[in-house]
Amino acid sequence: MALLRALVCASEKAACIAQLCRQEDALFQLLVEEKTGADKNKRFVQDFKTLADVLIQEVIKHDVGAEFPALQGHIFGEESNKFENGLGETLVVQVCGTECDTAALLARVLDHNQAAADLLAAAVHQEVPLEDPALAAVAVAVSPESMAIWIDPIDSTNQYIRGRGDVAPVGGIYPSGLRSALVLIGAYDRHSGEPVLGVINEPFYRQDPLTHRWQGKYHWGVSYQGTRLCSLPCPPLRPDPAAVLSGSEKPEVQQALAPLYGGRLRFASGAGYKMLCVILGLAEAYVLSEGSTFKWDSCGPHAVLRALGGGMVDLGAALAGWRAGRHGPPPQLTYHRAAGGAAGAERWANHGGLVAFTHPEHLPAVLYALAAAPGL
Ligand code: 2IP
Ligand code: CA
């Protein structure tokens, strides 16, 4: 399964770059810098975080596309790679043939901050070692010709910038902080739109108490033609289930879910992180009533959920079906079609909100609880 291995490898390199931007002083200063006055108008300085995002996305695109030419032109992400520097020049951020050329391009984007450009270029061109016998043993023939890819280079960018590493978990779930900043990569079937391969990388999984360096962790899943494989075991459906929600979830939704979950409504930042909480069995469901997530947020985690026998559905559509008396499994989210009548990033939003779950038998309880909620 060379493609899954390539996606994991790319996520590891992406995680290294995300860690580097927080650990190397020359980069960290740019990441947290608050610009004022005239500098505020220079897009790159306001937005080094966007450069980090774009660069990570381009690295994944480059490395995966180089190994699988059939995927070139079918790898999509959250960010556009066009950038304007402080001189008003528009530059296209990409991985060049050599480290030296990448460093030169990044120096132009970064208004000649050569130290920062050199650090990033070295990380972009490094070989990331990957030893994973379980991954090496995966034998499923997924043909790259029929796949396309969604990348979220850093989900939960706000928490990535804030950078708190000292947030205490509630019921095992981190409400905020670096733990919720994730790299998400998903491969889906170009024709059916079904998510097939998923990788979730946690660059800020653990901090070494002596060196203060961050160590990451990754998870993967495959769901293809009846074969389901995952780096994680399927968590049990607990008798006292919990749900994880966005801190900004509607009060009506919270109230409607309260009887089902008792005091176990948890709140966390990061769409991908909330999906990971479900995958890890820290919550039985992630319920979102707004169209505030996108295909790049959900594709990778959705593939992992399917690998565990679970899934992700459009909440609005599932509720409409439930109210119309259709109590069977609702259709799952797909990834190949843009929403009609929308423009820009909104074309790829999960407009109806979503429910993520590992146990399909838990979904009716969620829909039953929400079907009676006013205004949903
Ligand atoms: C965001 C990020 C936010 C999330 C939003 C995503 O992605 O995960 O945290 O909102 O839905 O699109 P919330 O935290 O309320 O769930 P990004 O950080 O990549 O913009
Ligand atoms: Ca995101």
Automatic annotation (TrEMBL):
Give GO terms: molecular function aspect only: inositol-1,4-bisphosphate 1-phosphatase activity; metal ion binding
Q: What are the binding positions for Mg(2+) in this chain?
A: 78, 152, 154-155, 297
InterPro entries per the UniProt record, alphabetical: CysQ/Inositol_MonoPase (IPR050725), Inositol_monoP_metal-BS (IPR020583), Inositol_monophosphatase-like (IPR000760), Inositol_monophosphatase_CS (IPR020550), INPP1_dom_1 (IPR044897)
Q: Which SUPFAM superfamilies match?
A: Carbohydrate phosphatase (SSF56655)
Query: Which UniProt keywords are listed?
Result: Lithium, Magnesium, Metal-binding
What does the record give as cofactor? Mg(2+)
Protein name in the entry: inositol-1,4-bisphosphate 1-phosphatase
